[in-house]
Amino acid sequence: MKIFKLLPVLGLLLIVSSCTTVRVASDYDREANFGNYSSFAFFKPGIDKAKISDLDKKRILRAIDNELAAKGMQKSGNPTLLVSIFTKERERVNVYNNNFGWGWGWNPWWYGGAYGSTVSRSTEGSLYIDLIDAQTNELVWQGVGSARLITGSNIDKKEERIREIVSEILAEYPPGLASK
């Protein structure tokens, strides 16, 4: 009987822990010398195309600014790197089947028909951060992070989530640093 008391807690922990993860991937130009990049500026034409609110753009740019500054890079009027972003958003639907003991035979926890299903919906977004060589205007690094978004009106949680996503993405920059 103790297992019945633990199942809801374990299920809740699984759901909550799956919501906090940020899936990250990055790609880069092997020919680029990342040691030459010491300053950055935001590439306004690219950022203006991002289909998110201006407030969220500001939050993302502030988080990028803080992360790059923590890596020793400086914001500059004559940068070596240009930073651009774009976003994608989609609704995610999860169906959890709670079918305990359906079918033939006996189950030690439950016997009988379907117990029911639960459907949950969440918004998942992807943030792409592009780093462009300012001299050649070529993409040298791209990082993408996909995660569940905070869509409510709690600004503190929204800002914290954006900082977490940006931090996870830029942990991959410069290439080879994360694996060392």
State the separation between the terminal residues, measured CA to CA: 48 Å
Helical segment tally? 4
Poorly predicted sequence stretches spanning 5 or more consecutive residues: 3-7, 9-18
Number of strands: 6
Mean pLDDT: 81
Beta percentage is 25-35%
Let me know the largest β-sheet.
Answer: 6 strands, mixed
Fold topology:
Blueprint lengths: L1 H18 L3 E6 L10 E4 L1 H5 L5 H17 L3 E2 L5 E17 L19 E17 L5 E10 L6 H16 L10
Parallel strand pairs: 2-3, 2-4
Antiparallel strand pairs: 1-6, 4-5, 5-6
Helix pairs in contact: 3-4
Q: Which short descriptors sum up this protein?
A:
single chain, 180 residues, alpha/beta, six-stranded mixed sheet, 4 helices, 6 strands, 31% helix, 31% strand, elongated, disordered N terminus
Task: Provide structural commentary.
It is a single chain. With 180 residues, the protein is α/β, with parallel strands linked by helices. Helix content is 31%, strand content 31%. It has four helices and six strands. Strands 1-6-5-4-2-3 form a six-stranded mixed β-sheet. A hairpin with a 5-residue loop joins strand 5 and strand 6. Helix 3 crosses helix 4. The chain is elongated. The N terminus is likely disordered.
Quick description:
The protein has four helices and six strands. It is an alpha/beta fold and 180 residues long.
